[in-house]
Specification:
By secondary structure, this protein is mostly helical. It is built from 16 helices and no strands. Helix 4 packs antiparallel against helix 8.
Amino acid sequence: MHNEEKNRAWIFLVLGIMAFLANGDNYAVAPLILDMSKDLQVSIPQTAFSVTSYMVCFGFFTIIIGPLGDRYGKTRIINIAAFGTAIFSILSAFSHNLGTLIVLRAVNGAFGAGIFPVCIAYIGESSPDANRQRSIGKFFGMMFLGGASATAIGGVVAHFGSWRTVYFLYGFFELVIAIIMCRSIQKAPGVIDQLNFRKIYKTTIRNRELIKVVSTIFLIGFSVFGTFTYSGKYIQINTGYGVMGVGLILSLFGVATVVGARKVTLLRHYFNHRFVPCAAVLGSLSLATLPVLRSPLLISLALFGFGFAFISIHSTLVTTAQNLMPKMRGTVMSLVSFNLFVGGAAGTFVNGWILDFFGMQWVFFCAACLMLLILLISAKWLDLTIRPVILKQAAS
């Protein structure tokens, strides 16, 4: 049994490293758009389409990938996705024009959609009840640490090379991890007999509790991703730091998700049904104080609180969603990821409008209000309590 636990921990670590790399792959070149536009001899808005193409394909294929994992086996989909995202990251480094780069990044996004939701579904069905939320939280922690630290990593790598070096190195390390994954993860069969997207999603939509949970996850994506997108610019304005300094401060959000993932089981055991509302209060306070802070240390602490609140709420919602339909975890995670990233896209768009008309501080204030709305929803309409058997296992 001890060997089984060690093997499971090793596999989860490998999956977490892949999530770190795959999420960082998307964000690492964000501060290098200017260099990319000069190299490709196109405008900055045109160059930004290469980033957009990744996200659009990621969002679309998320809906498809989950049911494929349930039908043909999650490990098979994970391995294909890992090799795909590695290969197309490497190829992106050799793009000779913008059109080629956009196509390669779009295909990369499609493969990336097979990593996050299916890995979480696999972790969910492979974990004992008492450890499920902590395992899912650790995966999310590595994933968001990868995105949060990508700006600093991309800046350092580009300083010694170029944006092409960033894509190549991320792709190379993804390929190494993909090979390790292929050798480490035992092949698992599918859990449904027939692939019928209409029937599958009709079944999930009929589950009202699940719809409540994933709708709340949409609000999480809106308030967290939609705000985090503009946090770098805010930090740069208030501290005067460069790309690497801003990236290091932003990485505190990712560090908080890793720390929070390790403590989430213990804290949820202690607070029980009050856990998510308390985390929402922490998130709201962190967001509300950000606009009035000028000290890099205090900004870092607020970002840490923001990240800790996010991973506490999101891992709880994801664990709850999976428990509502344990035989269709892949499909459930497709809905979760779709709502999270569509919520993030909607938040980014709306917050851009708020930023233009009202100023940066109102971006954070509105996100703080959304956190309070999440508090109300979790306290009134969502059943996020832990079942007695899980409490007993966690205590032991």
